[in-house]
């Protein structure tokens, strides 16, 4: 059954351990108002530690994924109320993107349509991203007279080579899903009518993995990028040992099924977690 956030700007369903979360302002192309940002944090809070949720997918109702920040409600109306109000709405927006970057469960952006500016925050926050060929990605800020703020410039530089990031930010031209995949903004692009099936397939693979290892892995990939090799090596030793303190049996079961039972090969898929003794 579809659930709706307090103010109706976010909807979600949980089906077979996948939480399908959607921006729900289709008539406003799912642009992010302060209300939507508050609602999204509420929904992320509700879902994060539910036992029946293993993967969260973020998509949009209607023709947009998200047309970025709401130019009226997030920028103009808020700026009119002064700096305090501006900082407050920034905290809420950046807050849920940060929450999503370090989410307990695996996350996938399913980009079904328009993805602009501020939308790059949640795009990057999701661990994986799949787009419709028909989707359009753009740093449109330059077209209306601001720099790509709210993390958008950082996302472009993280995901794109320097020349592409610079062109993308300065030119204000859109790229479609296919180009976004070639550039590395998303993992893959495919026709819109195949997008959900592919995302479901990927989510189902993730659902079979050891969840403690999955969370440690996604955090490690985000953390080590800015560390020196030696610092990364140290971080990874400690992250592995911390993961063992939450789940000391999973990897032992994995080794057992490979070495003793010969019932699976780690190079070809995940071990059978249902056989693990409690
Ligand atoms: N902020 C505020 N309102 C927005 C919006 C945004 N970012 N994006 C869309 N809307 C509103 C429009 O004002 C319009 O409102 P109305 O029905 O009350 O007139 C409604 O959503 C539909 O938008 P419309 O432009 O008619 O839809 P479209 O399908 O023809 O075009 C876009 C879609 C996304 C190309 C276009 O809406 C657009 O350029 N939006 C702004 C994108 C942007 O620059 N975002 C970056 C913000 S950092």
Mind explaining what this structure looks like?
The chain is an alpha/beta fold and 278 residues long. It has 2 domains: 3-207, 2-enoyl-CoA Hydratase, Chain A, domain 1 (Alpha-Beta Complex); 211-275. It has 12 helices and 11 strands. The strands form 2 sheets. The chain has a 7-stranded mixed β-sheet, with helices on both faces. A 4-stranded mixed β-sheet has the order 5-7-9-10. Helix 1 (34-48) links the parallel strand 3 and strand 4. Helix 1 (34-48) runs parallel beside helix 3 (83-101), helix 6 packs antiparallel against helix 7 and helix 10 packs antiparallel against helix 11. The chain starts with a strand and ends in a 19-residue tail after the last helix. The structure holds coenzyme A (COA). Coenzyme A binds at residues 27-29, 31, 67-72, 114, 116-118, 140-141, 144. Keywords: Lyase.
What key phrases describe this protein's structure?
alpha/beta; single chain; 2-enoyl-CoA Hydratase, Chain A, domain 1; 12 helices; four-stranded mixed beta sheet; binds coenzyme A; seven-stranded mixed beta sheet; 278 residues
Question: Could you give a short description of this structure?
Answer:
This protein is an alpha/beta fold and 278 residues long. It is 49% helix and 16% strand. The longest helix has 19 residues, at 83-101.
